[in-house]
Amino acid sequence: PEGTDGRYRGQLDPNANASGKGIFDYRSGFTFVGEFKKGKFVKGAYYRGNEVRGTMKDGNWDQKGIDKSLVKEFPYDMHLYSRLNKTKKSMVVEGPQIDEPETFSVFCCI
After folding, report:
1. Burial, 78: exposed, middle or buried (Cβ in 10 Å; 0-12, 13-18, 19+)?
2. Closest C-alpha to 52, from 71, 24, 34
3. How far apart are CA 90 and CA 92, in angstroms?
């Protein structure tokens, strides 16, 4: 979506563009949870971990602060689990579940 490096998880349109509900994980560690249309962000909330950093409505970032109704509509509750072994530390990240699993797809933009 929008030409940014990261990974999209969510619904796709017939042309394999992000469309519908989804999650975009930026390489920088930020996450956008929301609605997409033709590969563009439409509305949702922008997170760093569990902290809300911004919200978007009608394709525009909210300049007046965080819209709490969008945070409620598009929550992101990230849980980190770690396991240690003798040589390295590995991490498993679990994110929110998306309704309608039959339409869930993975699309990678790098």
Report:
1. middle
2. 71
3. 7
